Amino acid sequence: MISLDHHTHFSSRYTHQTLEIINSNIEEGNLFLQSTDWVVITYGTSFIYEFLPKKKLVANCHKIPGKYFEKRLLTNLELTDSIYETVTNLKDICNEDVQILFTVSPVRHTKDGMVENNLSKAKLISAIHEILPQFDNCLYLPVYEILMDDLRDYRFYKEDLIHPNSQAVQYIWEKFGNAFFSDETMDFIEENHRISKSLSHKPSDDTHPKYQEFLENLKGRIALQQTKVKHKIFSSGLQPNSNK
Fold first, then answer.
1. Total count of domains within the chain
2. Is 242 part of any domain?
3. CB within 8 A of 186, min separation 6: which ones?
4. Domain ranges, residue 215
């Protein structure tokens, strides 16, 4: 059983099993949203696919033959209505102080065509900026613009010349952190990076007393990091930095 509204991860052999997986994830997502302070939404394309037999838009084609679908570009009104509805729904589910951060993916959908991709991205950016002034809790992070304009060189792309490489990702991450992370959160993230590097360390003798001491110290650092997040899935320190 598949759902045209869901990823193949939700598919199963029987209808009731698929519904159980879907409903369980909806409940889990709903509970998370009720306690979160920030929601980050990234849009990728303005193109959609309509499943012709049922006249409905789909999120996943599940390798069903292309003749059953029609591809089209969303209108400006459809985009703004959809974004507006997303914001109002989140305001109903989340706490009243929730902040919603919009971005547009810099990954180009080259299979749509270069002109078509640019039109698609432009429509998304325009729609987001039309909605932003209508809400106090909505912000925009120019990820697309950073890669296109700040890093306008193919050395910042992977070999496919479509996806940003690790250097570009790090550059965007730093811009993101400087704008929205508190100093405390930045320190937390940096310590996580240092711990990650330590975990990848491969000793020549893992029984050596010095290495065992190193592991004990590492366990203590990890335990200290865990106390900082407590029951939260993500750190609540994500907020605009007033010092910037």
1. 1
2. yes
3. 177
4. 182-244
For 28-53, letters b (16+ CB in 10 Å) and e give: eeeeebeebbbbeeebebbbbbeeee
22: CB partners within 8 A, 6+ apart? 3, 6, 10
Is position 196 within any domain? Answer: yes
Could you list the beta-strand ranges (E) of 44-199.
Answer: 47-51, 56-58, 69-73, 99-104, 138-140
Dihedral-angle region of residue 144 (phi above 0 means left; psi in -120 to 50 means alpha; beta otherwise): alpha
As a whole number of angstroms, the distance between CA 181 and CA 174 comes to: 10
pLDDT digits (tens, 9 = 90+) for 99-147: 999 999 999 999 999 999 999 999 999 999 999 999 999 999 999 999 9
Which helix (H) or strand (E) covers residue 207, if one does? none
Read off the pTM.
0.79
Q: Locate tokens 């700040």: which residue?
A: 150
